[in-house]
Amino acid sequence: MAAGMMIVGLAGLLGLTLCSWLADKIHQRWQTGRLMFAARSMLIAALATGYALLAVRIESAVFVALFSIGWLFAYNFATCVYTAIQDVIKPRLRATAMALFFAGLSLLGGGLGPVAVGMLSDHYAPAALLAAGASEMNEPFKAVGLHNAMYPIPAALLLTMLALLPASRCFVPDAAQMQRGMTDDMPV
Predict the structure, then answer these.
(1) For every residue of the chain, which 3-state class applies, written as one string?
(2) Fewer Cβ neighbours under 10 Å: the N or C end of the chain?
(3) Per residue of the chain (188 residues), what is the pLDDT tens digit?
(4) Considering the entire predicted model, what is its pTM?
(5) CATH number (domain holding residue 137)
(6) What is the domain range of residue 41?
């Protein structure tokens, strides 16, 4: 329970406040800075969570610290992408754009993510039981199953980073086009 509070709660609080302030400062200097900050954050998140998951022998406190660092940087996705959407979508379409974005995010991450992790965990726990030559499923085997089921997390973070790179290249012309469209829509 305390580990979950540390990973999600404290990392979220810092990631959503401190890193959002930093993202705004970076964006003030470089138009693509916010999205590049998000891409670099996803790389750090993938490396930290991947190292925590792949370490053969790791203390619980070190795992929680590494995974927290990864989750802190993963939160930068939200603070950077939400604002970038606002910068490239006309105000009259922003609610629709955000609704579609959140629908996709909720369906893929919030909806399918736990189902996929659960299915993988259900696959890996019996495999751990079989590998140990045991006959009764117990908590250590379930823990191995859950641990192994989280391996796709760093991969998903890397895929997100790879999506952010072309988005950063399109951002400046898309934002300029949106601004031109705003002046075209103004009454004369």
Answers:
(1) CHHHHHHHHHHHHHHHHHHHHHHHHHHHHCCCHHHHHHHHHHHHHHHHHHHHHHCCCCCHHHHHHHHHHHHHHHCHHHHHHHHHHHHHCCHHHHHHHHHHHHHHHHHHHHHHHHHHHHHHHHHHHHHHHHHHCCCCCCHHHHHHHHHHHCCHHHHHHHHHHHHHHHHHHHHHHHHHHHHHHHHHHCCC
(2) C
(3) 677 666 777 777 777 888 888 889 999 999 999 999 999 999 999 999 999 999 878 888 898 889 889 988 998 888 899 999 999 999 999 999 999 999 988 888 888 888 999 999 999 999 999 999 888 899 989 999 998 999 999 999 999 999 999 999 999 999 899 888 877 665 55
(4) 0.84
(5) 1.20.1250.20
(6) 2-185
